[in-house]
Amino acid sequence: MGKVLVVTSGKGGVGKTTSTAALGAALARSGENVVVIDFDVGLRNLDLVMGAERRVVFDLINVVQGDAKLAQALIRDKRIDTLSLLPASQTRDKDALTEEGVDRVIAEAREKFDWVICDSPAGIERGALLAMRNADIAVVVTNPEVSSVRDSDRIIGMLDSKTLRAEKGEKVEKHLLVTRYDPGRATRNEMLKVEDVLEILSIPLLGIIPESEEVLRASNMGSPVTLNNPDSAPARAYFDAARRLRGETVDVVVPLDRKGFIGRLFGRRVA
Amino acid sequence: MNLMGFFRKSSSAPVARDRLQVLLAHERSVIGKNDLLATLQEEILAVIAKHITVERDAVQIKMDRGASVSTLEIDVEVPFDAKKAIPRPSSVSASV
To answer: Is A189's CB within 8 Å of B10's CB?
Structure first.
Protein backbone atom coordinates (compact mmCIF):
# COMPACT_ATOMS: atom_id res chain seq x y z
CA MET A 1 0.00 0.00 0.00
CA GLY A 2 1.54 3.28 -1.13
CA LYS A 3 1.31 6.65 0.55
CA VAL A 4 -0.80 9.46 -0.88
CA LEU A 5 0.83 12.88 -0.74
CA VAL A 6 -0.78 16.15 -1.77
CA VAL A 7 1.30 19.15 -2.81
CA THR A 8 -0.85 22.16 -2.00
CA SER A 9 -0.63 25.87 -1.11
CA GLY A 10 -3.84 27.82 -1.63
CA LYS A 11 -1.99 30.56 -3.51
CA GLY A 12 -1.02 30.09 -7.14
CA GLY A 13 2.47 30.44 -8.56
CA VAL A 14 4.38 29.46 -5.42
CA GLY A 15 5.88 26.27 -6.92
CA LYS A 16 3.43 23.39 -6.44
CA THR A 17 3.98 21.89 -9.89
CA THR A 18 7.76 22.45 -9.77
CA SER A 19 7.86 20.79 -6.35
CA THR A 20 5.62 17.89 -7.41
CA ALA A 21 7.90 17.12 -10.37
CA ALA A 22 11.13 17.59 -8.38
CA LEU A 23 10.05 15.53 -5.35
CA GLY A 24 8.49 12.84 -7.55
CA ALA A 25 11.69 12.46 -9.58
CA ALA A 26 13.85 12.54 -6.42
CA LEU A 27 11.80 9.76 -4.78
CA ALA A 28 11.81 7.74 -8.02
CA ARG A 29 15.60 8.10 -8.32
CA SER A 30 15.97 6.49 -4.91
CA GLY A 31 14.19 3.42 -6.27
CA GLU A 32 10.64 4.13 -5.13
CA ASN A 33 7.71 3.56 -7.48
CA VAL A 34 6.13 6.98 -7.97
CA VAL A 35 3.11 8.36 -9.82
CA VAL A 36 2.48 12.10 -10.03
CA ILE A 37 -1.13 13.09 -10.71
CA ASP A 38 -2.13 16.50 -12.08
CA PHE A 39 -5.40 17.67 -10.48
CA ASP A 40 -5.40 21.05 -12.22
CA VAL A 41 -8.14 20.23 -14.71
CA GLY A 42 -8.35 22.79 -17.51
CA LEU A 43 -4.97 24.33 -16.64
CA ARG A 44 -2.70 21.31 -16.73
CA ASN A 45 1.01 21.99 -16.58
CA LEU A 46 2.66 19.05 -14.88
CA ASP A 47 2.97 17.31 -18.28
CA LEU A 48 4.85 20.35 -19.62
CA VAL A 49 7.19 20.64 -16.62
CA MET A 50 7.93 16.90 -16.91
CA GLY A 51 8.47 17.11 -20.68
CA ALA A 52 5.63 14.69 -21.50
CA GLU A 53 3.21 17.10 -23.18
CA ARG A 54 3.39 15.35 -26.55
CA ARG A 55 2.76 11.92 -25.10
CA VAL A 56 -0.64 12.56 -23.47
CA VAL A 57 -3.37 10.28 -24.81
CA PHE A 58 -5.76 9.72 -21.90
CA ASP A 59 -6.09 11.79 -18.75
CA LEU A 60 -7.40 11.75 -15.17
CA ILE A 61 -10.99 12.48 -16.22
CA ASN A 62 -10.99 9.65 -18.77
CA VAL A 63 -9.96 7.29 -15.96
CA VAL A 64 -12.39 8.76 -13.42
CA GLN A 65 -15.25 8.38 -15.89
CA GLY A 66 -14.20 4.88 -16.88
CA ASP A 67 -13.37 5.72 -20.51
CA ALA A 68 -9.79 4.51 -20.04
CA LYS A 69 -8.02 2.19 -17.65
CA LEU A 70 -5.45 3.69 -15.29
CA ALA A 71 -2.66 1.69 -16.97
CA GLN A 72 -3.64 3.15 -20.38
CA ALA A 73 -3.50 6.74 -19.13
CA LEU A 74 -0.20 6.53 -17.24
CA ILE A 75 2.83 8.00 -19.01
CA ARG A 76 6.10 6.33 -18.05
CA ASP A 77 8.96 8.80 -17.70
CA LYS A 78 11.68 8.33 -20.34
CA ARG A 79 14.52 9.11 -17.93
CA ILE A 80 13.44 7.10 -14.86
CA ASP A 81 11.33 4.00 -15.33
CA THR A 82 9.96 4.08 -11.76
CA LEU A 83 8.32 7.46 -12.41
CA SER A 84 4.87 7.81 -14.03
CA LEU A 85 2.56 10.72 -14.79
CA LEU A 86 -1.24 10.85 -14.86
CA PRO A 87 -2.02 14.12 -16.63
CA ALA A 88 -5.07 16.33 -16.10
CA SER A 89 -7.50 17.05 -18.89
CA GLN A 90 -6.91 20.34 -20.67
CA THR A 91 -10.29 20.59 -22.37
CA ARG A 92 -12.83 19.09 -20.00
CA ASP A 93 -14.61 20.82 -17.15
CA LYS A 94 -13.40 20.11 -13.63
CA ASP A 95 -16.97 19.27 -12.61
CA ALA A 96 -16.38 16.02 -14.49
CA LEU A 97 -14.36 14.87 -11.46
CA THR A 98 -16.49 13.09 -8.88
CA GLU A 99 -15.50 12.22 -5.32
CA GLU A 100 -16.26 8.53 -5.87
CA GLY A 101 -14.31 8.48 -9.14
CA VAL A 102 -11.27 10.18 -7.60
CA ASP A 103 -11.37 7.82 -4.60
CA ARG A 104 -11.43 4.81 -6.92
CA VAL A 105 -8.48 6.04 -9.04
CA ILE A 106 -6.40 6.91 -5.96
CA ALA A 107 -7.17 3.52 -4.39
CA GLU A 108 -5.97 1.76 -7.55
CA ALA A 109 -2.83 3.94 -7.74
CA ARG A 110 -2.10 3.17 -4.08
CA GLU A 111 -2.01 -0.55 -4.94
CA LYS A 112 0.50 -0.05 -7.77
CA PHE A 113 2.85 2.62 -6.44
CA ASP A 114 4.85 3.42 -3.30
CA TRP A 115 4.03 7.12 -3.65
CA VAL A 116 0.96 8.78 -5.18
CA ILE A 117 1.74 12.50 -5.44
CA CYS A 118 -1.24 14.77 -6.17
CA ASP A 119 -0.45 18.19 -7.63
CA SER A 120 -3.25 20.43 -6.34
CA PRO A 121 -4.71 23.35 -8.28
CA ALA A 122 -4.54 26.78 -6.60
CA GLY A 123 -7.51 28.00 -4.62
CA ILE A 124 -9.64 26.45 -1.89
CA GLU A 125 -12.48 25.19 -4.05
CA ARG A 126 -13.56 21.83 -5.35
CA GLY A 127 -10.42 21.03 -7.34
CA ALA A 128 -8.13 21.67 -4.36
CA LEU A 129 -10.44 19.71 -2.05
CA LEU A 130 -10.50 16.72 -4.42
CA ALA A 131 -6.69 16.78 -4.63
CA MET A 132 -6.28 16.70 -0.83
CA ARG A 133 -9.22 14.36 -0.14
CA ASN A 134 -7.32 11.07 -0.01
CA ALA A 135 -4.03 12.43 1.35
CA ASP A 136 -2.04 10.78 4.13
CA ILE A 137 0.66 13.43 3.92
CA ALA A 138 0.53 17.06 2.78
CA VAL A 139 3.37 19.22 1.57
CA VAL A 140 2.34 22.86 2.02
CA VAL A 141 4.37 24.96 -0.42
CA THR A 142 4.89 28.50 0.88
CA ASN A 143 6.88 31.51 -0.30
CA PRO A 144 8.30 33.75 2.44
CA GLU A 145 5.78 36.45 1.62
CA VAL A 146 2.61 37.62 3.42
CA SER A 147 -0.12 36.52 0.99
CA SER A 148 1.39 33.06 0.53
CA VAL A 149 1.69 32.51 4.29
CA ARG A 150 -1.90 33.60 4.86
CA ASP A 151 -3.21 31.27 2.15
CA SER A 152 -1.13 28.40 3.54
CA ASP A 153 -2.71 28.95 6.94
CA ARG A 154 -6.12 28.60 5.31
CA ILE A 155 -5.12 25.42 3.50
CA ILE A 156 -3.74 23.91 6.74
CA GLY A 157 -7.17 24.50 8.29
CA MET A 158 -8.81 22.67 5.38
CA LEU A 159 -6.37 19.74 5.63
CA ASP A 160 -7.54 19.40 9.26
CA SER A 161 -11.23 19.47 8.39
CA LYS A 162 -12.01 18.59 4.77
CA THR A 163 -9.99 15.43 4.10
CA LEU A 164 -11.12 11.82 4.45
CA ARG A 165 -8.62 11.40 7.28
CA ALA A 166 -10.10 14.40 9.11
CA GLU A 167 -13.61 12.98 8.69
CA LYS A 168 -12.42 9.76 10.33
CA GLY A 169 -10.89 11.72 13.21
CA GLU A 170 -7.35 11.06 11.97
CA LYS A 171 -4.63 13.56 11.14
CA VAL A 172 -3.05 14.35 7.78
CA GLU A 173 0.71 14.56 8.32
CA LYS A 174 1.59 18.13 7.30
CA HIS A 175 4.98 19.45 6.19
CA LEU A 176 6.11 22.94 5.25
CA LEU A 177 8.20 23.43 2.12
CA VAL A 178 9.52 26.98 1.85
CA THR A 179 10.31 27.82 -1.77
CA ARG A 180 11.91 30.79 -3.56
CA TYR A 181 13.91 31.55 -0.42
CA ASP A 182 16.62 34.17 -0.73
CA PRO A 183 19.01 33.79 2.25
CA GLY A 184 20.68 37.11 1.50
CA ARG A 185 17.46 39.09 1.61
CA ALA A 186 16.29 37.21 4.71
CA THR A 187 19.57 38.06 6.49
CA ARG A 188 19.07 41.72 5.59
CA ASN A 189 15.53 41.58 7.04
CA GLU A 190 13.99 42.21 3.62
CA MET A 191 12.26 38.83 3.52
CA LEU A 192 10.44 36.74 6.13
CA LYS A 193 12.84 34.27 7.73
CA VAL A 194 12.07 30.58 7.70
CA GLU A 195 11.77 30.71 11.52
CA ASP A 196 9.08 33.40 11.20
CA VAL A 197 7.06 31.31 8.74
CA LEU A 198 7.49 28.21 10.92
CA GLU A 199 6.39 30.07 14.03
CA ILE A 200 3.31 31.47 12.31
CA LEU A 201 2.17 28.26 10.59
CA SER A 202 3.49 25.85 13.27
CA ILE A 203 3.89 22.74 11.13
CA PRO A 204 7.22 20.88 10.79
CA LEU A 205 9.71 21.95 8.13
CA LEU A 206 10.35 19.62 5.20
CA GLY A 207 12.85 21.79 3.38
CA ILE A 208 13.98 25.17 2.15
CA ILE A 209 14.31 25.58 -1.61
CA PRO A 210 16.48 28.58 -2.48
CA GLU A 211 15.47 30.96 -5.24
CA SER A 212 17.46 29.85 -8.28
CA GLU A 213 17.60 30.33 -12.01
CA GLU A 214 17.98 26.54 -12.28
CA VAL A 215 14.23 26.12 -11.64
CA LEU A 216 13.24 28.13 -14.72
CA ARG A 217 16.00 26.49 -16.74
CA ALA A 218 14.63 23.04 -15.83
CA SER A 219 11.04 23.91 -16.74
CA ASN A 220 12.26 25.40 -20.04
CA MET A 221 13.83 22.02 -20.75
CA GLY A 222 10.80 20.02 -19.65
CA SER A 223 12.69 18.22 -16.91
CA PRO A 224 12.27 18.18 -13.11
CA VAL A 225 15.07 20.25 -11.57
CA THR A 226 16.25 17.17 -9.67
CA LEU A 227 16.97 15.45 -13.02
CA ASN A 228 17.97 18.43 -15.12
CA ASN A 229 20.76 19.54 -12.79
CA PRO A 230 20.98 17.24 -9.74
CA ASP A 231 23.96 19.14 -8.30
CA SER A 232 22.25 22.53 -8.36
CA ALA A 233 21.19 24.16 -5.08
CA PRO A 234 17.42 23.72 -5.52
CA ALA A 235 17.87 20.09 -6.65
CA ARG A 236 19.98 19.25 -3.58
CA ALA A 237 17.33 20.84 -1.36
CA TYR A 238 14.61 18.75 -3.05
CA PHE A 239 16.70 15.57 -2.67
CA ASP A 240 17.06 16.31 1.06
CA ALA A 241 13.30 16.91 1.33
CA ALA A 242 12.60 13.61 -0.43
CA ARG A 243 14.89 11.78 2.01
CA ARG A 244 12.99 13.34 4.93
CA LEU A 245 9.71 12.16 3.37
CA ARG A 246 11.16 8.63 3.38
CA GLY A 247 11.76 8.99 7.10
CA GLU A 248 15.48 9.79 7.11
CA THR A 249 16.80 12.44 9.47
CA VAL A 250 18.62 15.06 7.44
CA ASP A 251 19.74 18.39 8.88
CA VAL A 252 18.02 21.36 7.25
CA VAL A 253 20.51 23.63 5.52
CA VAL A 254 19.98 26.13 2.74
CA PRO A 255 22.10 24.88 -0.14
CA LEU A 256 23.56 27.69 -2.18
CA ASP A 257 24.70 27.76 -5.75
CA ARG A 258 28.46 27.56 -5.78
CA LYS A 259 29.85 30.87 -6.94
CA GLY A 260 33.34 32.24 -7.00
CA PHE A 261 34.32 35.12 -4.74
CA ILE A 262 33.58 37.67 -7.46
CA GLY A 263 30.24 35.98 -8.23
CA ARG A 264 29.26 36.04 -4.55
CA LEU A 265 30.20 39.67 -4.23
CA PHE A 266 28.32 40.57 -7.39
CA GLY A 267 25.34 38.36 -6.48
CA ARG A 268 24.96 40.07 -3.13
CA ARG A 269 25.16 43.53 -4.61
CA VAL A 270 22.39 42.99 -7.11
CA ALA A 271 20.11 40.78 -5.00
CA MET B 1 18.98 57.62 -0.10
CA ASN B 2 19.71 58.83 3.41
CA LEU B 3 20.66 56.64 6.33
CA MET B 4 17.10 56.50 7.78
CA GLY B 5 15.70 55.51 4.41
CA PHE B 6 18.26 52.72 4.19
CA PHE B 7 17.27 51.25 7.55
CA ARG B 8 13.54 51.59 6.92
CA LYS B 9 13.82 49.76 3.63
CA SER B 10 15.89 46.93 5.13
CA SER B 11 13.57 46.03 7.97
CA SER B 12 10.30 45.28 6.20
CA ALA B 13 10.33 41.59 7.20
CA PRO B 14 9.55 42.18 10.91
CA VAL B 15 6.59 44.33 9.80
CA ALA B 16 5.38 41.46 7.61
CA ARG B 17 5.72 38.99 10.50
CA ASP B 18 3.81 41.21 12.93
CA ARG B 19 1.02 41.93 10.45
CA LEU B 20 0.63 38.21 9.72
CA GLN B 21 0.54 37.26 13.40
CA VAL B 22 -2.23 39.75 14.15
CA LEU B 23 -4.22 38.90 11.02
CA LEU B 24 -4.04 35.13 11.40
CA ALA B 25 -4.91 35.21 15.11
CA HIS B 26 -8.07 37.04 14.08
CA GLU B 27 -8.89 34.85 11.06
CA ARG B 28 -8.39 31.60 12.99
CA SER B 29 -10.74 32.79 15.71
CA VAL B 30 -13.41 33.82 13.21
CA ILE B 31 -13.25 30.49 11.37
CA GLY B 32 -13.16 28.54 14.63
CA LYS B 33 -15.90 30.68 16.18
CA ASN B 34 -18.69 29.56 13.90
CA ASP B 35 -18.14 25.93 14.83
CA LEU B 36 -17.84 26.76 18.53
CA LEU B 37 -21.06 28.75 18.57
CA ALA B 38 -22.94 26.09 16.63
CA THR B 39 -21.75 23.41 19.06
CA LEU B 40 -22.63 25.54 22.10
CA GLN B 41 -26.06 26.28 20.68
CA GLU B 42 -26.81 22.59 20.12
CA GLU B 43 -25.60 21.49 23.54
CA ILE B 44 -27.32 24.27 25.47
CA LEU B 45 -30.50 23.56 23.56
CA ALA B 46 -30.25 19.88 24.47
CA VAL B 47 -29.81 20.67 28.18
CA ILE B 48 -32.78 23.05 28.21
CA ALA B 49 -34.93 20.64 26.20
CA LYS B 50 -34.52 18.05 28.95
CA HIS B 51 -36.49 20.25 31.32
CA ILE B 52 -38.54 22.66 29.25
CA THR B 53 -40.20 22.44 25.87
CA VAL B 54 -38.48 25.09 23.74
CA GLU B 55 -38.30 25.97 20.07
CA ARG B 56 -34.91 25.85 18.34
CA ASP B 57 -35.08 29.60 17.68
CA ALA B 58 -35.58 30.28 21.39
CA VAL B 59 -31.88 29.80 22.14
CA GLN B 60 -29.65 32.57 20.76
CA ILE B 61 -25.92 32.71 21.28
CA LYS B 62 -23.67 35.64 20.51
CA MET B 63 -19.97 36.18 21.04
CA ASP B 64 -18.38 39.62 21.14
CA ARG B 65 -14.67 40.01 21.10
CA GLY B 66 -13.45 43.19 22.75
CA ALA B 67 -9.90 44.45 23.20
CA SER B 68 -9.54 43.30 26.82
CA VAL B 69 -12.63 41.18 27.47
CA SER B 70 -14.83 38.92 25.37
CA THR B 71 -18.42 38.20 26.23
CA LEU B 72 -20.55 35.18 25.50
CA GLU B 73 -24.23 36.02 25.58
CA ILE B 74 -26.78 33.24 25.87
CA ASP B 75 -30.39 34.26 25.41
CA VAL B 76 -33.10 31.72 26.15
CA GLU B 77 -36.69 32.63 25.53
CA VAL B 78 -38.86 30.49 27.78
CA PRO B 79 -42.46 29.98 26.56
CA PHE B 80 -45.47 30.86 28.73
CA ASP B 81 -46.76 27.32 29.18
CA ALA B 82 -43.46 25.41 29.21
CA LYS B 83 -43.72 24.12 32.80
CA LYS B 84 -45.92 25.09 35.70
CA ALA B 85 -42.85 26.10 37.70
CA ILE B 86 -42.35 29.06 35.41
CA PRO B 87 -45.16 31.58 35.80
CA ARG B 88 -44.61 33.87 32.83
CA PRO B 89 -42.31 34.39 29.82
CA SER B 90 -38.90 35.48 30.93
CA SER B 91 -35.49 35.88 29.48
CA VAL B 92 -32.33 34.47 30.98
CA SER B 93 -29.12 36.19 30.10
CA ALA B 94 -25.62 35.24 31.13
CA SER B 95 -22.29 36.84 30.51
CA VAL B 96 -19.00 35.02 30.76
So the answer is: yes
